[in-house]
Amino acid sequence: MLFLLLVRLLPVGGMWPAFVAALAFAAHPLNCEPVSEVSYREDLLVTASILAALFAAMAFMRKPGAWRNFALGALCCAALLFAVSAKENGAAGPVILAGYWLLWRRGERRGPWVALVGAGFLAVGAFLAARFALAPEHSMIFTTKPPRLGGSLASTLQIQPRIWAMQFTQVILPHDLCADYGPYSIRNFSFGMSAVIVAAVICGQIYLALRDRIFALGMIIFWAGLLPVANLMPLYRPIADRFFYLPLTGLAMMLARGLYAAGRLRLEARLTVYCGVTAWICAMGVMSFEREPVWHDSLALWQDTTAVNPYSPTAADNLGWALLDAGRNLEAGVAFKRGIELTRSKDPDPWAGLALASDAVGAPAAADAACTKAAALDPRYAHPEELVAALVLERDDAGKLEVLARRNTKP
Known about the structure:
The chain is mainly alpha-helical and about 400 residues long. It has two domains: about 1-295, no CATH class; about 300-405, Tetratricopeptide repeat domain (Serine Threonine Protein Phosphatase 5, Tetratricopeptide repeat, Alpha Horseshoe), CATH 1.25.40. Helix content is about 70%, strand content about 0%. It has 19 helices and no strands. The chain has helices spanning about 1-10, 15-25, 30-35, 40-60, 65-85, 90-105, 110-135, 155-170, 190-210, 215-225, 245-260, 265-290, 300-310, 315-325, 330-340, 350-360, 365-375, 385-390, 395-405. Helix 14 runs parallel beside helix 16 (about 350-360). The relative contact order is 0.10.
C-alpha cells in the first residue's frame, strides 16, 4: 500500500524511488515488534486504514458523479473510523487527510472537501468522545490508571525530548532494541543534547516541507502519528518500537522524494547516494533478520529484554513466568527475586511467581510466605480465578496458585 501510494504521489518516473522507500520501511527493525507480536496488530490496522483513506481521497472528485464521490467519501470516513477504533493514535487520520487536501487538492471546489474532511474529524471525534465518556469507571484489566511520566507535566516535558532523541537515532541506526524500555534506555541522552537533536530534526523537516509538498505530507504523517503516543497524555508504556510504525511511513515518503531528487544529481553523486541507501537498507534487513527470533516465544523475548534493559521489572517478572513454564524453576526463582527487588516489593505478581517456583523446588515455607505477601499486596491473588478473568494469569498457573492460596487461608 505504501509503495502504490508513493507511486501516485511522486512525479512521472518515481517508481524506483517509491520501491526503495517502501523496501526501507519493510526492512526496518523497528517494525519487528508490531509485525511479530499479534497483540500489537492495532498499529498495522491503524496504518493500513489511514493509507486506505488516502487512496479513497485521491479518487475523490477526480471524476463527476455525485453517488461515486459520496461512496468514496463514505469509504474514506469508514477507514478513518476503523483506524481510530483499532487504536487511539488513529486520531492522526483526519489530520493527514486535511494535509493531503491542502497540499494537493486545494484548488478544487472547496465545499465537497470541507464536507469530507469535516466528516472525518466528526467521525473520529465522536468515537474518541464515546471511548472516554462511556468507558466503565472500574476495569477488571486496567485496575490503575497510567501514571504521568516523571510524575508531573513539567517532568514529562523534560523526559520526552530524551525519548525522542533515542528513537530518532534508532531510526537511522537501530541499537539496543527492546520490548520494554525505561530510564536505563535513555541514560546516554542528556536533556541538552536531546533538545538539540529534536530541534535539528524539526528544523530539517520544516526546511524540506516548505520546498516540496511530498516532504510536507511526510512531515504531517510523521508528527501526526507520533504525537498521540508522546506521553503528553499518560501512557501505560512510555516507549515502544511499535509507536514508530505509522510515523515511519511519513519518513519513507520523505526518503522517496529525496531519492527522486537525487536522480538529477551528477553521476558520481547519484551513485554515492544510491550505494549509501542500498547499504543502509541491507543493514536494516540484516538487523531485522537477527531481531525476528527474539519474538519466537516468551522465553526468548524476555531473556533478550533483560539483557538489553537489566533494570526492567516487567522483563524480570515475565522472564520468571517464562522460565517457570519451561520447568526451569530455580532460574525462575532468581528472576522473580530480581523482579521483587526492582519493584521494591510493591508488585504482587513476582511474589506469586516466587511462591510457585519455591513450591516447585520443594521449599513450602518460602512458597507460603511469598503467597501470603502476594495476597497482602493484592487480595485477588488469594482468589486466582479473578486474575484469569483480568488476563493477569494463565489458567494453569492460577490453578497451582489456588492450591497455595487455600493452604495459606486461615480457617
